[in-house]
Amino acid sequence: MNHWFSVAVQTPAHSSLGGLLTYRSDQPLAPGTLVRAPLGTREVLGVIWAATPGPGTDMAPESVRPLAGALEGLSPLSDGWRQLVDFAAAYYQRAIGEVALAALPPQLRELGAAQLARRLRRTAAPAGDTAADVGAGPENHPDFVALTDEQTMALAEIESKSGPFLLYGSTGSGKTEVYLQAVARVLDADPCAQALVMVPEINLTPQLEARFRARFAGRWGDGAVVSLHSGMTNPQRLRSWLAAHSGAARIVLGTRMAVFASMPGLKLIVVDEEHDPSYKQQEGARYSARDLAVYRGRLEAARVVLGSATPSLESWHRSQPPPSAGDPAPALPLPPPAGAGRYQRLTMAGRIGAGAFAQVRRVDMNHQPAKTVFSPPLLDAIRTRIARGEQAMVFLNRRGYAPVLHCADCGWKSECPHCSAFRVFHKIDRTLRCHHCGFTERVPRACPACGNLDIAPLGRGTERLEEHLAELLEGTTRPDGSPVRLLRIDADTTRLKGALAQQLAQVHSGDVDVLVGTQMIAKGHDFRRITLVAAVNPDGALFSADFRAPERLFSLLMQAAGRAGRDAAYVAAGASEPEMWIQTFHPAHPLFVALKAHDYPAFAARALHERAQAAMPPFSFQALVRAEARTQQAAQDFLNAVRDAAVATDDCELAAWAPRVTLYGAVPMSVQRVANVERAQMLVESESRTALQRFLAAWQPALRDIRSRGAHKGLIRWAIDVDPLTI
Ligand code: ADP
Ligand code: ZN
Ligand code: ZN
To answer: Which pTM value belongs to this model?
Structure first.
């Protein structure tokens, strides 16, 4: 007897199949079962999505291919998991099969039955019964810390309410401790419960993992904590995935991909640094792991805790406490916030174990000689730190030596031949490198256009900043009379595996006096002896075309400020008071004023007010359609054609929703050509999330249709980005 199934398999992007294909089997198979399915001449991994009553009316039963079998020994993926994938596929406008298969570890696709069985036996081994004090409450644990009142209150709320929660607390306020305790309580209460803890960057997982392992390995065994991120090898990823899927792993720590981990006992999801843009996937299905976490929590009745010192304006807005009768009128009135009050805000204002917040000092660069890189007062402050054996951190968001190489005679610039961008000069290996397509050449000895020997770098990256600072600090000595030591940390110095860890160790050990780097060094790392942090040129983001740039700058600077004076004991023992220096031409800018006051709520109120006035997110909802083509014209033509199709349509659904969205004209992307491909985009906006969603779903067939009609020959690909982070 035949059973019929719709099966999720990886199909080409935008195929109208939606990623579900019909198969048959002589076995009854439960939804969620992992199967091998024939596709063309290959056999691919698939997931049974649903049983269907028959092969479908448009299919001859004998044309339906039989499944090659189920993956033995793996329990089916849960209904919740499939619903999460269904939602993500629909919301982000991708095929179910694509999202489902991308969410599974790559090795599941590759391993034969025997190999898989071996892997399964390995994970099935008991996860080390070293747990001496199973069942002991957290208060009996050796690592027990007496919680602050704020922590106690936050935990009580998390335990007793349903959330989602926005845990708003400055760096060092003890958020991670709250996560640890919340996890402990959930896992203590239920022997099958699992917790998912997400961080934005792979670089931050080792630290967090160490902290969770130290806390929980003793209680639930070494196998209880697993990681899941793209820096792992495929066998490691499979092992973690299987451990989570089987329930053997109680805690999964990971980056955005972990939001799709199969966790049958999921009871708690933590999203640390929830504002971080890394939670948004930037290719394929461009999902926001933070937003999916909130959705997943509701779906599976798991608590969700979003944590940040500088929440995204979206989350801040959603956690706006509902105004009560006696409240004074707010200084900057906002429209009645759609979705406000959906999250419960938990505030932790104090800072534990750390000294006062860094004092923010603004240097008005209008009063410095032209071309000053380090103003004299900043330089003095750095020298003082060095002389006292303390550390300073200087950051600039641009790596390389100089962003452009330039010939003053003829005006030649180091443009990339394949992109509409300049190649960056890297002095260390004397190359010109394109940061968009990777095209790299040796630096020419003379101007390629006119032969002038005197070609010079324009502007400044971290490499040049480090060189310049080393010159300025020439002769400065440490307390023991030895010369000052600088270290640069950025994507260039950390390319090799283990390099970052090794460089951070140098900072921790005190080998380094001044750390120079990109925003990479501002995030998360727990440096104990840094008492000065300086942003040498942060102005660019104040006037960026990207409306989210100020939000990112504020959070970066707050985070960077948090790097200074993390150790109260160190400061109390006579170290300098922590300082954050900002060199700016706009010292009175409200962003810097709010920063000086460490006042995120003031920054957020103002920013939300501006967003409301301009009807920008979170007061409207956006999607971008991006097109890539041989020529800019072809890319824009395609976008304009699909826009026209949305306006003049005989599709009722599309016609119903089109009036509720605004379709802007096609424009070139900010870097319009990359690797010889021209890129254009079109913004779609609506005041209603539902309207935008319904419109996009109805519009997709038109996009596919116009593409397949072949009128747009130069078009290479198109994609929709829902809730884009950069425009
Ligand atoms: P955050 O995650 O908000 O930056 P952490 O949880 O890392 O803050 O806490 C900052 C520091 O304070 C850490 O060294 C942590 O061990 C310590 N800490 C946290 N909570 C307490 C507490 N209740 N008592 C003492 N120390 C604490
Ligand atoms: Zn020239
Ligand atoms: Zn290039």
So the answer is: 0.91
